[in-house]
Amino acid sequence: MQRTKISFAILAAIVGLGTLLSGCGEQEEVKPAASNSSPSTDNAFAKKMKITMFNQGTFNAAAPIPPRDEDIQRQMLEKAMNIDLDMMIPQAGQSTTKLNTLIAGGDIPDLIFLKSRSDLAQYYDQGVLADLTPYLDQFPELQKRFSSDSWEAMSYQGKTIGVPGYDNVNGISRSFFIRNDWLKKLKMEVPTTPDELFEVMKAFTEKDPDGNGKNDTYGFIGGMNKEGNLQTYGFDSLMWMFGVNPPSAIEVKDNEPVFLFIDPKMKEALAYINKMMAAKVVDPDWVTMTSPDLLDQKLFKGKVGFMIRDARRLEPDYQQKMKEISGEVPEWIVIPPMKGPYGDQIVERKSFQGNSWAISKKADKDKIIRILSMLNYLFTDEEAYPNFAYGIKGIHWDVVDGKIKNKTSELSKEMKEKYLWVDHYRMPRRGDDAEYFSFQNPKTAEAFVNNQKYVGPTLPGNLLTADPSDTLATDRSRFINESLVKFMTGKDPLSNWDNFLQTLDTKFDMQKYKETAIKQFKEAGLIK
To answer: Which InterPro entries did the record assign (predicted)?
Structure first.
């Protein structure tokens, strides 16, 4: 598959992952057979082949690999491809050391899962990995399985050197939560614009929505991580209403890079948040919200009316925590993101496709074809899909009323622990597959599905790699984050915006960063 020029609008990657396992009950074990539609041991695969796999893409590195006669998924792969599969699972935190040791000893695994694009490029430069370009046209279904932007991330120096590892998950962790019971009490509607949202937050703060006669509620709370970065803690989601975000939010428009963190629209976004701060609708504890757990505590206490949290907080376990902490289960609902003044309506941007499958350069043509055939089967065979995405038929899933039903949440703790190893094979699960998560509350699945409509494409800035000669990169990023916080809190008036831009140019050499971006975008075919 040849490298192609693509627009920023399709530079997306499906990202994150998460397995939600809870519940009780046991099922009798039923061993599934390989799919009838899968590539079987025909003439093309008449000769059995040994394939070694370095699988650091497992969803549970601590789970032991079971014996072959108990490993249903392994049996399916071996039967479908006529192979002996030797899978290595490195311990958490030791993946890079283990892989480098194997490479140094000349014992390079045939199939390697890599967690970042930089690792993919590095190992290719070292002569470890094969160029897959000559072979991928033989696998049109595999090419269609992943989006163009995911394949673009596999492209390096004009060659395709990897296959996307697995879909990342979007549309769940940054859901827009609002207290519907408070809306009802105050006779207000679900907000749909930034202005409507502000009025709702103001009412939540000033009109005693919980009816306890105390001035102890707030319209919103966000936070920032311990490094002072605003990303992922709520304020960045408010910025998306204006189509902007902190680093590395870089768009390409009219053949030019657009740095959204210094775009004029960022000034409008900061003015909006500053308006919130001035009206005291933001819980003042936001400055201490440096982890998701702390924000969850605010959600459980129910004294804030609007938050950006994970849709899985609608699940029974979290609902129980709300009852234990606040004495009630607030009527939290997940709503669509506000539509901003420029038409932006974004929950989040798709995560960049960093993870990949790579093949050893030592593999000959026949082995490369066999491995790609295995990946093609793993990711595109619909009959095989539930056996890898969900687990073992009759235990983790079954067919109920003619439809596949994930039953993982019904398993006892003992059964879950017995079959932890199925997590080694879950990579084919699709990032938008609500059934995979085995949600117990239908409202969680509904929120997840609805949020998919508002997941924007990832931005080209994710393709950029650090320039070693840019010695001011770390200080520049810190200055940008600190300045944005000062503007939104009012510690620095927005009348100083032009001074901020000038300081970026004169003290932190913003021009060098721009030149690096332009150079790499040209190499990627995004700028002519």
So the answer is: Bact_solute-bd_prot1 (IPR050490), SBP (IPR006059)
